[in-house]
Design brief:
The complex is a heterodimer of chains A (700) and B (224). With 700 residues, chain A is mainly β. Chain A folds into three domains: 3-263, monomeric porin ompg (Porin, Beta Barrel); 291-422, GMP Synthetase, Chain A, domain 3, CATH 3.30.300; 426-689, Beta Barrel (Porin). In chain A, strand 11 and strand 12 (254-263) form a beta hairpin. In chain A, helix 3 (304-317) packs across helix 4. The longest helix of chain A has 16 residues, at 3-18. Chain A is globular and about 90 Å long. Residues 1-26 of chain A have low confidence and may be disordered. With 224 residues, chain B is α+β, with helices and mostly antiparallel strands. Chain B folds into two domains: 5-42, no CATH class; 61-223, Beta Barrel (YmcC-like fold). Helix content of chain B is 17%, strand content 51%. A twelve-stranded antiparallel beta sheet of chain B has the order 6-5-4-3-2-13-12-11-10-9-8-7. In chain B, strand 10 and strand 11 form a beta hairpin. The longest helix of chain B has 14 residues, at 29-42. Chain B is globular and about 60 Å long. At the A-B interface, helix 1, helix 6, strand 20, strand 21 and helix 9 of A face helix 1, strand 1, helix 2, strand 3 and strand 4 of B.
């Protein structure tokens, strides 16, 4: 079993038991064997529900397809696909299998109306070497709630059977590979395709289609299978919203099987936010009945500070929150907290405020809560105690409280703050299994020993060692990149560096001025490069825009995962100017301009859709002055990435997640040093754009 | 490419090892996933993320009275829970009842306004006063939840309370004379029906809707 499938299956085994929703809550498209919305092999005019993330595997004769798809917005979706053709050497001698990676984009131009069908335009394998390239326009109309009819016109592969001519001229060959094949799009022969989808019952669906793909490569050129008929038909079964199975007769000669895992990042598999209930807010006696309780004389007591700090720490320990320090006057308290478990900043703030209501004497009216990340105050959330008391049981208390709360720059640590002498230095370590995937079915499982030593807030020495236990990676063919091999020797590092010292760094995080954050990291920054990295970030707490600069000087490490620098005589100064922008609704954009590891100069643009629960799906592309030929067959560096928080999947209160970056091909151009603790993502959670989307959790 | 038996063995080994350390990063997700899978294989009926209250031993009324504290019983069918609750907090007319600090239920004069620790919690509510229920009033009711991706969402209903009549209910061996009030709430795509059995100014028994995930909660005021 593929290891990733194993993981997802594990997640889904949970969901199968937990979900009770009907399989067909609303009419959205179903997936095809290419992992895109469609019939069996053909696409359709429909889309998935917004934000649907799916993982599909299919076996169609000698072709295996593994696809990740994401409905980026209501209309736009993207797919990333790995394909393997077995028996590739049946007719032409050579490798026994061929593999290819492809990227699709599709956009729904029209949504279905009373009379009008849904209409989608799509590009399949839009940047690759063209083995799977096609473009299409597809229309789908529902008739009643059981029958869907689809018709479309395809080019490229989808125009290879039953063509009606080439309306937009001839299709040129792909050149160079790796860049968007815009010259080819909608050129060459076009052919119609069509199909029906009929829902037999709540769980079973019949699909039948007429395919316009002649499978020229597989049938005529390579002799992998016989395409005897343009007709495909089969059945699909779906009992719960997260899994769908299909079995088909394909092209009159083959059996096709599919398995789809369909996830909705917006809804936890476990149904709701896990974790124990919070303690109710403690109300103060009314000032009229007990004026003495409001006397501020307690501030003069010598041991008041340490007692309060201890009581607060005890209460917050239950929520995995540590009290860095406490500063107070008669009327105001500022507490700096470190949240290590709760996955939402707003909930950590709410728990802290409740704890303060139990601990602080009645005269304290203002609670200032400063979440601290890597020793840096990320923001200051100021809550009036009387609002907390007054709104606890009020309808729509989250909105009302937010209107009364301010989020400002954290500011410096108050001079009179009471820390805990036991908090620093702090040593922590962990030994846990880890999964490193090069692609969905390729990677290794191992053990990672990590440790960190914080000797003062913001000063940390950290490192990790990784030892493989099981691996199915291989050395592959040596890199032929004409650039310095800053990334393409990755398989050497995996093969020879076992065990490997992944990182060993000294880092200093600080707040040099209001709205500014800084980081300096020295040491073995990542498994391939070591050196020094410095970063400065400007990000006001309520700003959608952030700006940063980073400069690094690095030398390339030996492949054995040790401390040496003998194999490569390569050092480089790299650096970037970055702009980050929060477009709202969870869309984050980032633009980095600068010099990359191979000495190339260019820019990276990335866009991520970030969910309040920690899910993240994004795409990135880097264009530098390295030519497409020098970069390799994938042309330029690009890919998609995603993170699935364990909390979402398993309901355990943890901030960890499972992440993966998928690239259609690797090259040495457009590579950045992979240093830990970059500033923007570290602090964003506690700024308004991180706190507000799930602010309601302040009362959770 | 396939992972051989060795991989399965390695996973099993890691499941045994688990994760260790003092960096408090939560449990080992791989192990948790396997555990979760095993659990769901054993009990396909398990639902929700409640894990809140333990099922109670059938306690006698005398036993509970000897305890000397008010007791509210809650049954959550969808969560498979049945628990006795004690008071965690009282503020004016709102009482928060708790199942050992794991799950909380806040009721204003017996009308549910909040839950915590049930997973799909009712975060707050604009709910009717007891007088409105007894007075067979018509009013608007709003439920507030954390919806998709934890964003605040609300559901607004038009409600009408109807006095069904005088009834007797038995709660843990004690009979009570009550007035049965049914509250029917509708919105364009949904309906909620809450029932209250009111004894004087006490809601002796009720069946109140909390959220989609939790469904209806049944409360019985066992000991005043």
């Amino acid at each position: 079993m593929h290891i990733l499938q194993f993981r997802l299956l594990a997640l889904l085994a949970a969901s199968t038991a937990l979900t009770v929703a009907p399989a067909h809550a609303e009419s959205t498209g179903t997936l095809n064997i290419n992992g895109a919305t469609g019939l069996i092999d053909m696409p359709s005019g429909e889309a998935q529900k917004d934000a649907t993330f799916s993982f599909s595997t299919s076996l169609a004769g000698p072709i295996t397809r593994t696809t990740f798809s994401f409905q980026f917005s209501e209309r736009l979706s993207a797919s990333f696909r790995f394909q393997t053709w077995r028996d590739w050497d049946t007719v032409i001698p050579g490798d026994s299998k061929e593999t290819d990676r492809s990227i699709d984009l599709r956009y729904q131009i029209l949504k279905e109306g009373t009379w009008r069908p849904a209409l989608t335009i799509g590009l399949q394998d839009m940047t690759g070497q063209g083995l799977f390239s096609s473009e299409y326009v597809a229309a789908t109309k529902n008739f009643g709630d059981r029958l869907k009819v689809t018709a479309g016109l395809g080019w490229g592969r989808l125009g290879s059977y039953g063509s009606i001519g080439a309306p937009f001229g001839d299709r040129p060959p792909v050149s160079p590979t790796g860049t968007p094949n815009a010259d080819q799009w909608f050129r060459g022969d076009a052919a119609p395709f069509a199909g029906v989808e009929y829902r037999i019952s709540d769980t079973w669906t019949f699909k039948g289609e007429y395919s316009s793909d002649a499978y020229v490569t597989e049938d005529e050129v390579r002799g992998l299978f016989d395409r005897d008929s343009p007709f495909n038909f089969g059945f699909e079964y779906q009992r719960n919203p997260n899994m769908r199975f299909g079995v088909y007769s394909l092209y009159g000669s083959e059996i096709g099987l599919t398995f789809h895992v369909i996830l909705d990042p917006k809804s936890r598999l476990t149904g709701g936010i896990a974790g124990a209930a919070p303690a109710p807010v403690k109300a103060r006696p009314s000032r009229a009945t007990d004026p003495d309780a409001y006397d501020g004389g307690w501030v003069t007591q010598a041991d008041a500070g340490s007692i309060l700090r201890k009581n607060l720490a005890k209460r917050l320990a239950a929520d995995g929150i540590a009290v860095e320090n406490l500063a107070y006057t008669e009327t105001t308290v500022q507490v700096r907290i470190r949240n290590s478990r709760i996955d939402a900043g707003s909930q950590a703030v709410g728990r802290t405020a409740r704890a303060l209501s139990h601990v602080m004497p009645a005269s304290v009216e203002v609670f200032e809560i400063v979440p601290v990340v890597n020793g840096m105050g990320a923001s200051k959330i100021t809550i009036r105690r009387s609002d907390l008391e007054g709104l606890e049981y009020t309808a729509d208390n989250a909105t009302l409280l937010r209107e009364r709360v301010t989020v400002t720059d954290a500011g410096p640590v108050p001079a009179y703050a009471i820390g805990d002498e036991n908090l620093y230095p702090r040593f922590s370590w962990g030994l846990r299994p880890a999964l490193r995937l090069a692609e969905p079915a390729k990677g290794d499982i191992g053990l990672r020993l990590s440790a960190s030593y914080n000797f003062a807030p913001g000063f940390v020495v950290a490192g990790s060692v990784y030892k493989q236990l099981v691996s199915n990676t291989d050395l592959g063919s040596p890199s032929t990149s004409p650039l310095p091999h800053v990334r393409t020797d990755g398989s050497l590092y995996t093969e020879f560096g076992d065990p490997a010292l992944e990182r060993l760094t000294f880092a200093w995080y600080a707040r040099p001025a209001p709205n500014f954050y800084s980081r300096i990291t020295v040491g073995y920054l990542e498994r391939m490069h070591a050196g020094v990295s410095g970063e400065l970030l400007w990000k006001p707490v309520d700003s959608q825009l952030a700006l940063g600069i980073e400069a690094n000087y690095t030398r390339q490490r030996d492949t054995d995962g040790g401390l040496g620098f003998d194999e490569y005589d390569y050092d480089v100064v790299t650096g970037h100017v970055s702009a980050y922008y929060d477009f709202g609704n969870g869309f984050l954009g980032q633009l980095d301009v600068g010099k990359y590891l191979a000495g190339d100069v260019g820019a990276t643009i990335s866009i991520d859709r970030v969910f309040a629960n920690g899910w993240r799906v994004g795409a990135f592309a880097t264009v530098t002055d390295v030519s497409a030929e020098d970069f390799g067959e994938s042309g330029f560096d690009k890919g998609i990435r995603f993170t699935i928080p364990f909390n979402w999947a398993l309901g355990t209160e943890t901030r960890r997640g499972f992440g993966m970056t998928l690239r259609p091909g690797s090259g040495d151009g457009g590579a950045r040093v992979d240093v830990d603790g970059r500033l923007y993502e570290s602090i964003r959670e506690y700024h308004t754009d991180g706190l507000d989307p799930d602010w309601g959790r302040v009362w959770r | 490419m396939r992972f051989p038996k060795k991989a399965i063995a390695a996973i099993a080994l890691m499941a045994l090892l688990g994760a260790c350390g003092n960096d408090g990063g939560g449990g080992n997700p791989l192990v948790a996933a396997v555990g979760q899978m095993a659990k769901s294989a054993v009990s396909q009926e398990r639902k929700g993320a409640a894990g809140a209250a333990r099922p109670i031993k059938p306690a006698g009324r005398e036993e509970l009275e000897a305890y000397g504290k008010p007791v509210l019983r809650v049954k959550a069918q969808a969560l498979g829970q049945d628990a006795l609750l004690t008071i965690a907090d009282t503020k004016a007319d709102v009482v928060t009842w708790t199942a050992q600090g794991q799950a909380n239920f806040s009721l204003r004069n017996g009308v549910l306004i909040q839950t915590r620790g049930l997973g799909a919690d009712l975060m707050s509510a604009d709910a009717p006063a007891l007088a409105q229920l007894k007075g067979a009033a018509s009013y608007q009711r709003i439920y507030y939840f954390l919806g998709p991706d934890d964003a605040g969402t609300r559901r607004t209903y038009d409600c009408a309370a109807v006095v069904v009549g005088a009834e007797r209910v038995e709660i843990l061996g004690k009979s009570h004379g009550v007035t049965h009030v049914t509250e029917t709430c509708t919105r364009p795509n949904g309906k909620v029906t809450n029932d209250y059995w009111i004894e004087g100014n006490t809601v002796r028994k009720s069946r109140q809707w909390a959220s989609n995930g939790v469904g209806y909660l049944e409360f019985e005021k066992v000991i005043d």
